[in-house]
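Forgive a beginner's question, but might I ask you for the amino acids of a protein and the tokens describing how it folds?
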Amino acid sequence: MYHPAGHDHALRHAVQEVRTGRWVAMAGLLDETSGWDAWTRRTQVLATVAAGTDVVHAWRTEEPASLAAAVMACRVAVERAVRAHRSGHVRARDLWHEARAACRETADCVPADPVPWIGLLALAALDIRRDLPEHRLAPPGPMLPPGPWGLLAEAEKRDPHNREAHHRMLQFVYAGSGGPLSEAVNYARWAEAQAPVGSPLHALPLYVRVERYRRERGHERALDLHWVTEDAVRDARAALDGWFLFCATEEASQLDLNHLAHALFGALCFSDAARVFRALGPYYTTLPWAYRTARPDDRALAEEVFLRARARCLGG
């Protein structure tokens, strides 16, 4: 099954309550959440559900002094702006400005929280022409592109090696590159090199490899060799040894686990992939499996590919 909360049962309950228009479970969950990793992950998941409702607005109306509600309002504003941009909505630009203002206001209210800065990083990817000076700062090292490095530094200052912050930065790099992904490769390797053992950033290069496969329409060209090259196997092994073997899998990103299972399966490392499939339990995400199908928007096809891969690995 797919569920955005994965193994986080408390988050699953809060998500269900948000879907029915109630905010009390969300408020209680965030009140008891400790650690920026869990805080970032839970607020992100809740925002994807709450963005289509007015539940966060209702919460802020009832508890205007709640800092958690302010962070969630910031999250929802960013999520709505991103969705409007993707769909070409007529109010996309207005929502982008509103979300940026919400992030800045929230950063002032909760100065220790990395989430408002992560929100600004997400919005930076929508600035396709790089109009804002803060989105084209000089990089901290060679082979890296100009970008919102100041925003990333603010997020890093509050939570070093924050998973979502670096994924948002990678999306910014994608947005500025319609062709070769050399800058994205360089960024992913740079972020991975900075990361300590146990950090999910060791899985970042797997995302770039999947994106390249998608852009090259690998499913049409039978590019299974894409996954068994020396570099591909090395990236899969690095994520396994540098992150998976040390992480609490029940708290890990479902996307990260799926990307790792996918990479190990593609690299023909079936026994190692089986360990990741067992950690996933009953959960899966449509990406990256959907990119191995002729119709990436068809979730049923993605599920078929996932089930075949899991059966092959667990059966071995």
Observations:
- Residues 196-316 form one domain.
